[in-house]
Write a structure and sequence with these properties.
By secondary structure, this protein is of the alpha/beta class. It has a 6-stranded mixed β-sheet. α4 packs parallel to α9 (about 165-175) and α5 crosses α8. It contains 9 helices and 6 strands.
């Protein structure tokens, strides 16, 4: 803890003073982040570092397992963050970001009795049940490590589906204003994988190549009614 406190002092003396113009601009003009990232609370994954983001670039929501509960009337931190990001900040790119060696996904993969001593965590991780069901049904004969990785990847897909149940996101998608991204940080390989919505597969993000996008922005209206014409 003393080491962390020392870094706080360095922030005030060195970091803030060297970036005073940027911080002054943000203080005077407010924030206009470019993307919302929903990522795991794991201390090894730092969203701002992954994206090499400057202050003001990224709106971040972190929780165990990069979970997005389906929309419900009960208030919750993730739901409120998503709603504020879209409805107030006007964010048009949302990233759900998982990672390798995820403790939360190990909990999803393991037996329920392993979580008996942490009932709130167990209840939260039930939002990952869809990912586990997909892996159990479609990925036979995986060893334990590969099973956790498969669940972690499928969990990103499942949470993107949950995200689309949020009214602000659904409306933004229908208007063609919002793109959804599914990312996976492979800590062991030092690379970022992105979900390609057309193939359903994750592929490495590579400079000079087209970015894999889970759902590209595009107007999506199920009911095609002719536009009303004003009477003359």
């Amino acid at each position: 803890m003393n080491e962390l406190i020392g870094r706080v002092f360095r922030f005030e003396k060195d970091v803030y003073s060297s970036r005073s113009e940027l911080y002054g601009h943000l203080a005077a003009n407010g924030q206009s982040p470019k993307a919302l990232m929903i990522s795991c609370a794991d201390s090894r994954i730092v969203p701002e570092q992954v994206m090499q983001a400057e202050p003001g670039d990224l709106f971040v929501c972190r929780n165990a397992g990069n979970i997005v509960p389906p929309y419900a009337t009960q208030n919750g931190g993730v739901t409120s963050t998503v709603e504020y990001a879209v409805a107030v900040l006007g964010i048009r790119d949302i990233i759900v970001c998982g990672h390798s060696d995820c403790g939360a996904m190990k909990g999803v993969a393991g037996p329920p009795e392993a979580l008996e001593s942490i009932p709130n965590v167990a209840a939260w991780l039930r939002h990952g049940s869809a990912a586990r069901a997909v892996v159990d049904a479609s990925y036979p004969d995986l060893d334990p490590a590969d099973r956790v990785r498969a669940i972690s990847l499928e969990n990103v897909v499942a949470q993107l589906a949950n995200l689309r149940t949020h009214p602000s996101v659904a409306a933004g998608i229908a208007r063609g204003e919002i793109s959804l991204h599914g990312w996976f940080v492979d800590i062991h390989a030092g690379q970022i994988l992105g979900l390609d919505g057309e193939t359903g597969q994750f592929a490495p993000l590579r400079e000079g190549q087209e970015l894999p996008v889970a759902l590209r922005a595009g107007r999506r209206l199920a009911a095609h009614f002719p536009l009303a014409v004003a009477a003359e």
